[in-house]
Amino acid sequence: MTQPVINLSRRNFLGATGVLVLGTTLRPAFSSTQTNSFNPNLFVTVHPDNRVEIVSHRSEMGQGIRTAIAQIVADEMDADWNDVSVTQALGDARYGDQNTDGSKSIRINLDRLREAGASARQMLMQAAAAKWDVGIDTLTTEEGQVVHLSEKKRVTYGELSSNAATLVPPKNVQLKNRKDFKFIGKAVPHVDASLISEGQGKFGADIRLPNMVVAVVKRPPALGQQATSVNVPEAVKNDSRFVRVEQLDPTPGAPLFFPVGGVAVVASDTYSAMQFSQMIDIEWSTSDNQSFDSRSFQQDLRSMVESDLPTVHQSGDVDAVFNSSEKVIEHTYETAFLSHAPMEPPVALADVSAEGVKVFAPVQDPQNTQLQIVGWLKVPVESVQVNVTLLGGAFGRKSKPDFVLEAVELSKRLSRPVRVQWSRENDLQYDYFHAPSAQLYKASLNQNGLPSAWLQRAAYPSITSTFAPQAKSPADWELDMGFTKTPYLFENQRMEADGLVAGVRIGWLRSVCNIFQAFGANVFVDELAHEAKVDPIDYRLAMWPEKGLITGPAMPTPPGHEFKIERLRNVLNRARKISNWDTGKAEGRNLGVAVHHSFYSYVATVIEVGSGSESSQVKNAWMVMDCGTYINEDTCRAQMEGAVIFALSLAQMSEISIKNGIVEQDNFDSYRLIRMNQPPNIFVDLVESTEAPAGVGEPGVPPVAPALTNAIFAATGVRHRKLPMSMS
Amino acid sequence: MAKNLMINGESIDVSDQPEQMPLLWFIRDHLHLTGTKYGCGKALCGACTVLVEGTPTRSCQLPLSVAEGRDITTIEGLVDVNQVIREVWVEQNVAQCGYCQSGQIVAATALLQSNPNPSEQEIESALVGNLCRCGTYSRIKAAIQTAAQRIQQSATEELEGE
Q1: Do B139 and A641 make contact, defined as CB atoms within 8 angstroms?
Q2: Alpha-carbon radius of gyration of chain A
Q3: Which of A121, A404, A580, A660 is least crowded, fewest Cβ atoms below 10 Å from its Cβ?
């Protein structure tokens, strides 16, 4: 028995033609089944029954993008929200970038989505003008209808759809004035909220295909190990639910998005596959990674920052100032390996047949997934169809489609649909881990207590090691996340960085290097402010000009996304205000602050912890965000709330440690996350802005951990310089 | 002898299934009720929560042999019971990715059935086993409180109407 898969129209189309030809799929997917539908561009279809189908080409992982895209297009179209539904796009180069990553969906799509909606509206008006034989300037639109102003005539978009479908899209479109926005900027509930509340949201493991089987992969203890013998007990072999075992070999060279290898145990159902995988015996070859130890690796990173590293930026003469200064302060900060741990572990369903390749998976980048499959199977891109389900959390993990390639490879070998289900243990132990780090900060203070010279060093394994074997040094774009792109710029300054190659895969986790680089910088500044006996907010404000662009050694920014110090000052000042910072300090409340610019957004955080034995208890968190123009007010708030929880987990308790190449944590008892009884009250203040739209999903994370440890220092005088605070 | 489970009011024959199979995999793989989620397999995250005789239970650790003969309700079976909770969940935009929310809503429904007016602490201890990586905890808490008020209000109105 099977359940229908999502998106019936697309399936019917496929069924009719056999091999999928993408060049003709996406638009006809709608209009071939509904010939009277109006489908002016990739994002909009208006059906004769008034339904407005809007395509989300970005993946939904909780950040609300399906809703936001619909808000933008529907707003410019003047659609009736009740008529709007969202269809998830396949991976297809015609959409342009589909890599749902880097908090950039709105930043890079707002204009073209507005144009898509506006263009549809204009064509519908044109169709109405022709129908009534009136000038288009006598018409306007209102909730899914074209309205003739003086004659009080109305016609619905659905009624106009077949006529509009014959028109040519306009070259220039008129966009709305901001003041006329109906959906953009508003708190519209998420389009999938109702289905999710009924348990009907379709995630990766919720899709079935006829004749499918389930595979669970027993992966090598350390990376690079290969099965040398596999013994399947008779009890397994004789079980009618057992299908077979398949050996997957690790791919030599850089990890890329390739499977780590292992032995796949295939069965008719998930439970059997999991159970059989525990019953088989595997002997493994040896691998250099078996000697990898995260504790000595951490030591090595720390030793590195204690001496000179390659210089990435230099101004003035730091050493001369240090030598002539009475007060020089130096501290080292360290952070651990982390795992993404989305609630939905990686899972993918693949069907490789003579007709082509069909995949259903929770992936952040369906286009790259498609290309990876093309490279893996050596098949034409037109034959590979990647369907994106809802993502049960991702945080960067599901932009690496290694789990999809496993399913594709197994389906090819078995000539039937295969779902690969990762266990939680697999998820935590074979992740693309967030890099651990060590940073050293050193500064001399002048008579005013402000830095007269400043040295910063960072050492961490680079994400580039996932793409080039043995790549060692942090890339410019990694350093740009809060190390070289920093508001802490001085006349005498040196920045140094280097890395080490880890024995596990390194990946990007929500807010990436900003996590540790914002931590080092914000805690060190707090330490300096304390030395100088200046309030840490005043201290920062005193360092910075009133306004102007921050450049320094930072990478170039896209137009409209310059780093403006006045916006950073503004969020900090607002955080001061909403947290009652000054009276709170005076009353002895234990407050800590941090502020950070990432993904072109500005976020300030104030954290309050308890006193005495409750100093590790987070009572309140205030988040102020300036992300420029935003689409869904409530989503922005939700993302700030979520960022606090995400960051408190990594600050207080989450740590991946590795011994003999084996990850020591394997489930939520050892890889701990914040639970319902631990969160603080969270207050979010969103800056109204007409600036270009910037990131929302990630920028809330970086300032939380330093604000927390700064608050704990205020409460106890104990300075936490390691994350998690419980670091082993 | 045929063994039966009662799931969402229907009697279901499980005699050809392994006794040790956790209820989670039976309802997902065999009944194709996919609202109940796999998150950890060790009763550590609550994504697989169902009601067994009205009590929130981690179905990933409940073998069919133990579930036998008991009255089991999944998220799909609560649709006629928890309208108010679902309504508030949508209004207050509780879910982010949504993956853990079935478990959260099942736990919330059971809580309000046994305790119509839970304190903040009672909510926390009832849902402490339900992880949410997106961090929707404060919204879950607020939604349960709103739903509790709304349910009580409508109960009062009904009484007054009689």
Answers
A1: yes
A2: 27
A3: A660
What is the pLDDT of chain A when averaged over all its residues? 94
What's the CATH code of the domain at B63?
A: 3.10.20.30
What average pLDDT does this structure show over A532-544? 98
Instruction: Find chain B residues with C-beta within 8 A of A62's C-beta.
Output: 95-98, 134
Q: Compute the nearest-CA separation of A291 from chain B (Å).
A: 28
Q: How confident is the model at residue B162 (pLDDT cuts 50, 70, 90)?
A: low
Q: Are residues B102 and B121 in the same domain?
A: yes
**Of B74, B109, B124, which marks where a domain is finished?**
B74
- Report yes or no: A709 and A648 within 8 Å, Cβ to Cβ: no
Angle at Cα A698 formed by Cα A176 and Cα A577, nearest 5°? 80
B/e letters for A61-76, b = 16+ CB within 10 Å, e = fewer, are: bbbbbbbbbbbbbbbb
Q: Which of residues 1-40 of B touch A (CB under 8 A)?
A: 18, 20-22, 25-26, 28-30, 32-40
Task: Express each pLDDT in A357-373 by its tens digit.
Answer: 999 999 999 999 999 99
Q: What total number of domains does chain B contain?
A: 2
pTM score, whole prediction: 0.95
Beta bridge mates, A112: none
CB A289 within 8 A of CB A661: yes
User: Is A641 within 8 Å of B102 when comparing Cβ atoms?
Assistant: no
Q: What's the pLDDT tens digit per position in B52-99?
A: 999 999 999 999 999 999 999 999 999 999 999 999 999 999 999 999
Whether residue A50 is predicted with pLDDT greater than 50 in this model: the reply is yes
The residue of chain A nearest to residue B103, with distances taken between CA atoms, is A199
Both B65 and B85 in a single domain? Answer: no
Contacts of A682 in chain B (CB under 8 A): 138
Task: Write the pLDDT tens digit of every residue in A587-633.
Answer: 999 999 999 999 999 999 999 999 999 998 999 999 999 999 999 99
Alpha-carbon gap, residue A33 to A35, rounded angstroms: 6
What pLDDT does A14 receive? Answer: 29
Quote the tokens at residue B124: 């926390």
For residue A620, which residues of chain B lie inside 8 Å, CB to CB?
A: none
Task: Find the DSSP H helices in A342-487.
Answer: 366-377, 402-414, 424-429, 476-479
Q: Which residues of A touch B144 (CB under 8 A)?
A: none
**Residue at which a domain ends, from B27, B45, B74:** B74
A146-202 pLDDT, tens digit each: 999 988 899 999 999 999 999 999 999 999 999 999 999 999 999 999 999 999 999
Do B127 and B142 sit in the same domain of this protein?
yes
Interface predicted TM-score (ipTM): 0.98
> Domain A16-197 falls in which CATH fold?
Aldehyde Oxidoreductase; domain 4 (3.30.365)
Q: Which residues of A touch B89 (CB under 8 A)?
A: 193, 197
Say if residue B113 is in the same domain as residue B153. Answer: yes
**Residue of chain B whose alpha carbon sits nearest to that of A189:** B93
Q: CA A63 to CA A49: how far, in whole Å?
A: 30
φ/ψ region of A548 (left if φ > 0, alpha if ψ in -120 to 50, else beta) reads: left
Return the closest-CA partner of residue A454 out of A467, A472, A441.
A441
Fold of domain A308-339+432-723:
Aldehyde Oxidoreductase; domain 4 (3.30.365)
Q: How confident is the model at residue A424 (pLDDT cuts 50, 70, 90)?
A: very high
Q: Which of A60, A207, A216, A676 to mutate to test the interface with B (most CBs of B within 10 A)?
A: A676
Above 60 in pLDDT, residue A104?
yes
Looking up residue B131, the CATH number of its domain turns out to be 1.10.150.120
Å between A503 CA and nearest CA of chain B: 25
- Specify whether the CB–CB gap between A714 and A607 falls below 8 A: no
Task: Provide the shortest C-alpha distance from residue B132 to chain A (in Å).
Answer: 7
Structural domain A204-287+346-421, CATH architecture: 2-Layer Sandwich (3.30)
Domains A204-287+346-421 and A308-339+432-723 share a fold: yes
